[in-house]
Amino acid sequence: MICSAQDDQRIVITGVGLTAPNGDTLSDYRAALLSGKSGVDRYNIRYVGDTLAGQCHFDELKYQKRKELRRGTRAGSVAIYCANEAITNSGIDFPNVDPTRVGVYIGVTEHGNVETENEINEIKAFDYDTKVWSHHHNPRTVANNPAGEITLNMGITGPHYTIGAACAAGNAGMIQGAQMLMLGECDLAVAGGVSESIHTFGIFAGFASQGALAENDDPTSASRPFDRDRNGIVVSEGGCLYILERYSDAAARGAKIYGELAGYAMNSDASDFVLPNPEQQARCMTMALDRAGINANQVDLVSTHATATTSGDIQECEAIRRVFGDSKDTLVNNTKSFIGHAMGAAGSLELAGNLPAFDDGVCHPTINVENLDPDCELAGLVLNEPREKKSVDYILNNSFGMLGINSAVIIKKP
Hints:
Structural class: alpha/beta
Largest sheet: 10 strands, mixed
Strand order of the largest sheet: 5-4-6-8-1-9-15-14-10-11
Distance between the termini: 15 Å
Low-confidence stretches: none
Helix content: 25-40%
CATH topology of the largest domain: Peroxisomal Thiolase, Chain A, domain 1
Radius of gyration: 20 Å
Number of helices: 14
CATH class of the largest domain: Alpha Beta
Shape: globular
């Protein structure tokens, strides 16, 4: 296949590796989303007690030894699993890839809280004697840990770092990987987001103090974006990493292409610590559309960020209306209703659940919507049952975060 110089600026997805509360492979995850299977369950964590969370159940020993697990972090373990799965899924001959030309770009909401909380809990049994403090503390808690653990596990000697972008981090990791490929800083990018958030009591206590932590007698019904009776966030762990390549390289090796990064954008609200700004969210989506060179009516599916908080869902729906109007042709769904809020992994996991729509033309639904909030009505909102579309050519994936960070990624059918 003959490729042009312009093809070096086209970035495509050639591998997907993930672990979610309702699936550890893309096929199992997609099947769960189409069948309405939730991954939210009962959960207990110190000081907070009984609550709800999305817990992953991947095989921790598939790519790591027990000693490595003990020394590393949960976020690192999630990242290592997803990176190895993504490489395998890509079909690339990784042992013969130049390790100096592989970049690792991992989005995170936060890192280090889990390890610090655990060690403080441990030394209190020794009257806070710091002599029992773990000598692994510093490498466990540095911000680049999850990306660094991947390089140690896989022998990657190219650049690695994490991108702290609150709950927009999954999209941010992908955007960073794509930009590094376009700049020629690497030839292969492992990019996306990971989260170990359910292992820190602080995040549960923080949301609870805001009145934003979900409660429900039925764990599988707890995460209910857009529903009139929603009462907060279900915290989840997980990860999804992509193998990104230049189109020219992917085509040369005959790789399966899941989608092409057509457009992306990030911006800031600059208005509030936690309350979203629909004007800036709409602007972010419009910027992504402009970069992709398409109109809003060409987008077939919008994957929403909505977290099941009262104000957040409404603000995003307002932003979507500003961009897409009352079009019934643009379908809209939400993945957090199945898995909860995977924080730094949210954007990348939510995109992954929709990528197969390019092949099967099906939009997975938002579940747990029994009484749609009138303020969340959208013409193309897909509720409770999957909906078929003649063709899905463009997917727009929203991912927003605290301190007003917004991201939108547009993926084009290969």
